[in-house]
Amino acid sequence: MKIEGAVALVTGAGRGIGKAIALTLAHHGAAVVLTARTMNELESVKTEIELAGGKAHAVLADITDAENVRQLFSEISAKYHRLDILVNNAGIGKFAPVRDMPLGDFEAMWALNVRAVFDCTKQALPVMESQRQGAIVNVASLAGKNSFVGGAGYSATKWALIGFARSLMLEVREHNIKVITICPGSVDTSFSSTTTDPKRSEKILHPQDIADTVLAALIMPDRAMVSEIDIRPTNPK
Question: For 3-20, how does the pLDDT look when each residue is reduced to its tens digit (9 = 90+)?
Fold first, then answer.
């Protein structure tokens, strides 16, 4: 895929992995639509992109709300009349043993990590199908392939996301739409705090590592699709 001139939507674009992906796509010539639930973070990323000569548009949205999603995609359609890349990055993690986890925490993870991905993807597909090309990038987690104490709720949502993406890939490849799922290990963001061991941040993944991986998968030749990538620290010890 040619990134220059493409239109990309990045969810959870105000910080961490989403911010890094947005900055990277903009640096390579994409017009990036930034969305999240905190406008001052979005405006900060937008300003950073524009100061570097890139193009960005910020849209405040809660993508767990179906009406917000509909309005988001309507705004993209009105402004750009196309969508080439959807990055389903927004997500949350709540960690506790099942007996201690409030049902509301599980429901909040399911709403953002799975249902919002489904909703955004469903909105993007008709546009990409009409273009006969596009890419849907899902930021999952190695927690979607592994189990750990306190991770039952979070892992369940990431296992679901990976299963969704694998089936989606088979459904849409005939329309020249790539489905790419990135499964990172621990990343040095506010989601995976390293404050108790500052030296650990030197070893674990950084948001730019994930952004570079996304870019590499997107710019594969049109005939080739990398559908799933595990990415972990080389030597975390």
Answer: 999 999 999 999 999 999
Instruction: Report d(CA 235, CA 62) in Å as an integer.
Output: 37
CB-based contact 68:11 (threshold 8 Å): no
Which of 106, 154, 159, 164 is flagged as catalytic? 154
Residue 80 is a catalytic residue: no
* Cα distance from N-terminal residue to C-terminal residue, the chain: 36
**CA 73/CA 127 separation, integer angstroms:** 10
**CATH classification of the domain holding 149:** 3.40.50.720
79 within domain boundaries: yes
Whether residue 170 is contained in a domain is answered as: yes
Q: Measure the CA–CA gap between 155 and 120, rounded to whole angstroms.
A: 21
pTM here is 0.94
Q: What is the pLDDT of residues 91-106, one digit of tens each?
A: 999 999 999 999 999 9
**Helix, strand, coil shares, percent, the chain, to 5:** 50, 15, 35
Domain enclosing residue 25, as ranges: 7-231
12, amino acid identity? G
Q: Is residue 20 part of a domain?
A: yes
**Nearest of 186, 185, 194, 99 to residue 149 by alpha carbon:** 99
Work out how many domains the chain is built from and give that number.
1
Asked whether residue 237 is assigned to any structural domain, the reply reads: no
DSSP annotation of 187 reads: B
